[in-house]
């Protein structure tokens, strides 16, 4: 195994003794190492992004998608409102990510709102029509935050170094609000409680 790891691991140290080490390798990495290739998802490829600066730790998943080079899944979000009258705007739910073929790798970023909304479906389940402000931060886009994040990615991630940034696309996003086009992606399923009290 040491021969397989030579030149392909993140670091090597002749002082390490294999008798005192245990190494678990996923099948993808094992195939790469046995073929004398650097595994495509290894740290050795220089793709480790490190720790995000504090200013980006509160990015919404929509904001991350706007800056994504590849999008490999569409998302179906199922939400239902709180039954507690004191918290009428609290939403609960889950998201299912459905894999899809990567049709294209972005050459220009950010992605347009129609591109993001086109891979999204939202199903509201409940006895009342949803209120748009109930969406809260789930689908929030902050233009200034996305611009700063994309600039940071271009400066700190080699995959973004050759991408073009079309700043005119940012004008399609709100300063701070829900993803444009979201309303057309929402389905409301009403139900009436038939429980006996």
Automatic annotation (TrEMBL):
Please name the Pfam families in this protein's record: DUF6570
- Looking at the record, the residues that make up the DUF6570 domain are 36-167
Entry's InterPro entries?
DUF6570
Which named protein is this? Answer: DUF6570 domain-containing protein
